[in-house]
Amino acid sequence: MKIAFVIARVGEERNVIQKLALLLADELRRFGDQVDIQPFTRKSLFKILPMQKLNMYDCILIANVGLQCAYYSLYKRLGLLRKPFVAISFGSDMRATGNILINLFNKVSKPAINLLIVVGPDLEPVALRRGYKNVHYVPNWAGALA
Amino acid sequence: MKVMFAARLVDFKDPITFIRASLILPHHDFVVAGDGELLDDCRKIAGRNVTFLGWVPQFVVNENMINADVFCQLSPIENIWSSSLILAMKYKKAIVCTNVGHTTRFLENGVHALLIPAKNEIVLANALVKLENDDLRHTLGMNAFHYYRNALEITGIIKQIRALIQEASIASS
pLDDT tens digits for B26-56? Predict the structure, then answer.
């Protein structure tokens, strides 16, 4: 598979999500997949996405339903990105149901996401309550951090 | 005995109960790795037997985990799957964990960990005293490690994720 993997805060030592996402990318490559990291920063908001290039991938994988997910989702909702979206939720983006920004990111992203993978069993009902349709739980692979 | 807590110092992880237990067991060494909004509160009530590492890089957490005898996972809401809990299982540590959320669906009390009620430092201290027994610590650590090997290793999980991605790609094409 050819996968474009959108990850925010790449290289930030304190951010565990980006570390887990990069580990996932490495492991997918070991299975023979082509995984190209699309680093996302707030500056990315002011760049136009290379849609033609992104539409050549089999799917767009996104780490966490944050600003990065909402941003890419807007392009998909406008019909400019046509590939399936798979988002992986590590928890902070789902549990904070009282956070206005997180709720907004979820609201914008939800219609674009074809599959939501959650790394905690408690996140499955939370995601369903938020209106996601295709939600699957897998365990956290944090053991690979050691 | 060296007892470790590694998490953000926030209500969701409940470091306060860990610190309160340290006051009951002054001859045990307690180590806290992590920072957060409760750090000052923790420092205020902690005795001399508590070491605060603050936020430290992953390799420092790993080193401290290796040197610890017991790891504590004390969320009053959910422990499954905290990254530190998984690391403790991988490092064959005896674990004391709160029996909240989905914890008992995955971990069996007395087999993979000692499961205790949340926010109760007396029960936590009692569990730590129980774990002064070398054999019990070893057994719990090995059981947790076998669970890790069977269910939490990255290769098996990535296989699941790949299958899900492929399924989603086919369904939407």
Answer: 999 999 999 999 999 999 999 999 999 999 9
3-state secondary structure of B5: strand
Rounded to the nearest angstrom, the minimum Cα separation between B39 and chain A is 17
Between chains, do A27 and B155 touch, taking CB under 8 Å as contact? yes
CB-based contact, B163 to chain A, within 8 Å? no
Beta strands in chain A (DSSP E): 2-8, 34-40, 59-63, 85-89, 115-118, 135-137
Read off the pLDDT band of A32 (50, 70, 90). Answer: very high
Q: Among B78, B89, B162, select the one facing A122 at the smallest CB separation.
A: B78
Cis peptide before B81 (omega within 30 of 0): yes
CA-wise closest residue to B158 among A115, A83, A87, A138: A138
pTM: 0.91
Query: Average pLDDT of A51-64?
Result: 93
The domain in which residue A15 lies consists of: 2-45+52-85+92-120
Give me the architecture of the B2-172 domain, per CATH: 3-Layer(aba) Sandwich (3.40)
Q: In Å, how far is B85's CA from the nearest CA of chain A?
A: 9
Residue B148 gets which letter from DSSP?
I
Asked if B76 is an interface residue toward chain A (Cβ–Cβ < 8 A), one would say no
Q: ipTM for the complex?
A: 0.94
> Which CATH number belongs to the domain containing residue A68 in this structure?
3.40.50
Asked whether residue A140 is assigned to any structural domain, the reply reads no
